[in-house]
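This follows on from our talk about sequence and fold. I would like you to pick a protein and set down its sequence and fold. Go ahead and set the record down below:
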Amino acid sequence: MPLIKTEQKKLDILEYASLRFGKYGVAKTTIDELSKDMRMGKASLYHYFSSKEDLYYQAINFESGRLLAKVKETFNNDSIALPDKLKIYFNLKTDIKKQHRILYNLFNLIINDTANTKEKELAADLINKESGLIKSILSAYHPDDHDIEDRELGLFFSLLSFTALYPIELLNLFNNDKKKEIFGANFSILIEKLLSKNPV
């Protein structure tokens, strides 16, 4: 099988597995179900992944890559002002439950202190990669501000944005989209103030 076709097949499996794990969880997902739904033999599935756990962990990495690509695309869009980019960035996190359910489940495991060592490593890797991305973006906007690196602002903003997963759940109690919009705008304002030389 040509290398390109092999890689595409692996990506197709990861995309489907990410959705399946996100919807049903690891315990309720089996290799038999995955192979049946994808209309491929178990042997073919094991050709790409050594076990269900291997597939699960690679699916998390796959979904993390998709999220990071969206973050990078947002901040590299020169037609959007920084405050609007920050709002979009925040909204990416509030949409994780719908768009990247496997990641939402991962962070729930961490919050509930039920994640295993590998899951914690994958979550930390995602946060580290995103914080590095955010740091480089903030440094580009504020090239003379050494506090961005000294105060670990990339990591701070990355962690702060992930907390959006849970306030949004609480805001859903009010069934009010305006409150969610204001919450996102406040996140953008907070970052701008923190980066300002004269914060209020």
Remarks:
- The radius of gyration is 19 Å.
